[in-house]
Amino acid sequence: SHLVSLGWLLQVALSSVVALGANIICNKIPGLAPRQRALCQSRPDAIIVIGEGAQLGINECQYQFRYGRWNCSALGERTVFGQELRVGSREAAFTYAITAAGVAHAVTTACSQGNLSQCGCDREKQGYHDYQEEGWKWGGCSADVKYGVEFSRRFVDAREIKKNARRLMNLHNNEAGRKILEERMKLECKCHGVSGSCTTKTCWITLPKFREIGYLLKERYSDAVQVEPVRASRLRQPSFLRLKEARGYQKPTDTDLVYLERSPNYCEEDTATGSTGTRGRLCNGTSTHTDSCNVMCCGRGYNTHHYTRIWQCNCKFHWCCFVKCNTCSEKSEVFTCK
Ligand SMILES: *[C@@H]1O[C@H](CO)[C@@H](O)[C@H](O)[C@H]1NC(C)=O
Ligand SMILES: *[C@@H]1O[C@H](CO)[C@@H](O)[C@H](O)[C@H]1NC(C)=O
Ligand SMILES: *[C@@H]1O[C@H](CO)[C@@H](O)[C@H](O)[C@H]1NC(C)=O
């Protein structure tokens, strides 16, 4: 389902949300689930931040998969939850986890910066509380990640309205993304004391850089586990997921990414699977990894484009006062998949 059209959202500054009124704005965003629309109407200031968070996730996804056949394309460039991947693959698992984490990250950041009306710094850690061990105390602005995570839960998870296995998969991966974010919160401290001595310290909790979350989720993607739905006896709806290869009812861990179906190979364009294919993609003639022309082009071969790079080199300073350079050039090639 199309949830939030980002290109559209970014054109809408917060000021116009205020000017036009939440009702009009929230009704215009295509594809919101009913509970998302209600949240949009009650918190119009947050909808912009949610859009930024989803974009954070998309950008990170494209960075992490820049050398892969699947390059995050089905997330789309102009829609936040754009064309979603219809196959319950490990790529879909990654996109859900990184989007949920991105929204939690952006909301938490906005809280710390005072940009959202109902949150701020983590109040539990404001002032000087219990933890006064080893000469440090809470101070500054601790990021209220609990609020960001809860907000992501309320908004991102609200799109799962169908009661099927895919819903369980999506919710699990959303939660895994947020959990990994929470686990990477950091303690940052500042020393106080004469001439830099650290007789007392003030410490606060900060968010990790989102790049770090990207790398962690990429590792989780590589280790993703296949699951299958289990229906509790009398109910028809699947009620939980269990590891497919395991004996008994072993469940995935909280931070596992889970998938239901094997991935397509993403070689050819296929709207049914959300594959854009690799025709026209750049590939690397010397790499032995997934960006090699062999792997990237799926054996179809590649086109070679020659060009010459020219630049100023061996520059020397002459007394006085000019610089003389040579012109250097280098022949280069780039390869694109047939
Ligand atoms: C918070 O608001 C300031 C000023 O309006 C803006 O520059 C900044 O990007 C906002 N931060 C977030 C996380 O939205
Ligand atoms: C991903 O691959 C598609 C298909 O080759 C291409 O059109 C698109 O520009 C790529 N996107 C990114 C972000 O590299
Ligand atoms: C191609 O791959 C090689 C080996 O992995 C790497 O050193 C080189 O920088 C890559 N070239 C490009 C254009 O990315």
Automatic annotation (TrEMBL):
Keyword Metal-binding part of the UniProt annotation: no
Signal peptide limits: 1-21
Compartments in which it is found: Secreted, Extracellular space, Extracellular matrix
Keyword Transferase assigned: no
Listed Pfam families: wnt
Keywords carried by this UniProt record: Developmental protein, Disulfide bond, Extracellular matrix, Glycoprotein, Lipoprotein, Secreted, Signal, Wnt signaling pathway
Chief location category: secreted
Alphabetical list of PROSITE patterns matching this protein: WNT1 (PS00246)
Xref: PANTHER family: PROTEIN WNT-7B, WNT RELATED
Family: Belongs to the Wnt family.
Function: Ligand for members of the frizzled family of seven transmembrane receptors that functions in the canonical Wnt/beta-catenin signaling pathway. Required for normal fusion of the chorion and the allantois during placenta development. Required for central nervous system (CNS) angiogenesis and blood-brain barrier regulation.
Protein name: Protein Wnt
Species per Swiss-Prot/TrEMBL record: Dicentrarchus labrax
Organism ancestry: Eukaryota, Metazoa, Chordata, Craniata, Vertebrata
UniProt gene name: wnt7ba
